[in-house]
Amino acid sequence: MAAALTACTAKKGESGQNGGEDPTYREETFSLESAEKKENEPQTEDEAEVKTEYPQKDSGGDQNAGVFIPEVSDQEAEVVYAGEEFTKSVFSAGGGMLYVYGAKDDGAFFLGGMKAQEDIFCEIPLSMPEDMRVINMFVDEQGSCHTFWLKVEESEIEGQKVNRMLFEGGYIVKTDKEGRTEYTLDVSEAVRENQTHFYGFAADREGNYYFENNRKGGIVKLRPDGGTEKLIPCEGEIETLGIGRSGAVYCIYAKEDGTEWLCRVEEDSVSSGGVELPKNQAVYSRIDSGTDTEVLIYNKSGGVYACSPDEQEAQQRIKSGDLPVSNQEVGGYGFVGDGRLCLQGQKDGKMIFYYIPAGRPYNEEP
Q1: How would DSSP label each residue in 218-284?
Q2: Beta carbons of 202 and 249 less than 8 angstroms apart
Q3: Strand partners for 93
């Protein structure tokens, strides 16, 4: 089988440009977005037993009002591609849709999409050069998928085939939820200028694109035509990017003192304020718009958090130990768009999706 494009082997803070190592991607069952830059550690038994509570509202004396009891909604779904098993490489969700980029048994790569809680990914027809691979993807509130393609070169490290990223060419392709291609942008110039890992990747409502460039110390903003507009400086190392309920762009970055912050990305800088996030073993790897809050945040070892600009701290909605899968058991993740967190795990060698309500207290009606 051809090498799947997955976890980056370059160390945190390194790139082919300034770290002396070329980023390469090995075949695993984890998505690129979940490639950790820190070690995950399992939670203790005490942590796993703690249940999560929402901020209490005026409940008229009902002490149970607002208490969240995590439940897996609907069913666990064994997911296959057109009846065939496949190796997942990159996964994302949003707007009621799930998307996956992976390799079939014959080694051919494909991009597939399906509505949440279905169980068959339908292939999205794309004509891309054979040396191009999806390294990241973003799903907007309409359910459209934005895939970031980069030119790669097959190589071999320690007897294992890998795809080494080449910063010679790249594309961003937008497809709607019906699988129709809306446009293809040639972003080769931006790729050559910004030789980075592209951990963070997001698109705003105006059609601008954003990705991290920690080597240059900020966030690169691309115009809707794919050209580079500017580098937005940031005082720390970007961990992820996302879009809030209002349409604003947010980032999570780590300062030199080890603290991690959620901040709004302004026109010319990352806001100096923001919310300090709880410390966890894993990096914060997902920001999505909330249903009753500005953003929902997912952390593999911490769980789900909610945050709005007028709040001084993040509210923990679900602890990691209350989720059906956590830490290294998680292969892919994303918020579906209706407040539910979608987690991908493995069961008896099959790909399983769990849907967990996180956008509002479980005992409240939508």
Answers
A1: EEEEE-TTS-EEEEEE-SSEEEEEEE-TTS-EEEEEE-TTS-EEEEEB-SSSB-S--EEEPP-SSPE
A2: yes
A3: 98
Contact 283, 328 (CB under 8 A): no
Buried b (16+ CB within 10 A) or exposed e, 207-238: eebbbbbbbbebbbbbeeebeeeeebebebbb
Alpha-carbon distances, residue 272 vs 19, 38, 237, 284 (angstroms): 29, 25, 14, 19
pLDDT tens for 4-60 read 222 222 223 332 222 233 333 332 222 223 223 333 344 333 333 333 332 333 333
Count of C-beta atoms within a 10 Å radius of residue 204: 16
| Distance between CA atoms of residues 360 and 337, nearest Å | 12
pLDDT digits (tens, 9 = 90+) for 136-179: 999 999 999 999 999 888 888 788 777 788 888 899 999 999 99
**Distance, CA of 91 to CA of 98 (rounded, Å):** 8
Nearest Cα to Cα of residue 318 among 300, 292, 331: 300
What's the rounded mean pLDDT across residues 97-108?
Answer: 86
CA–CA dist 147, 215 (Å, integer): 22
For the chain, the straight-line distance linking the first and the last C-alpha, in angstroms and rounded, comes to: 45
Other C-beta atoms closer than 10 Å to the C-beta of 151 total: 18
- pLDDT computed for residue 71 by the predictor: 53
Separation CA 131–CA 119 (nearest Å): 29
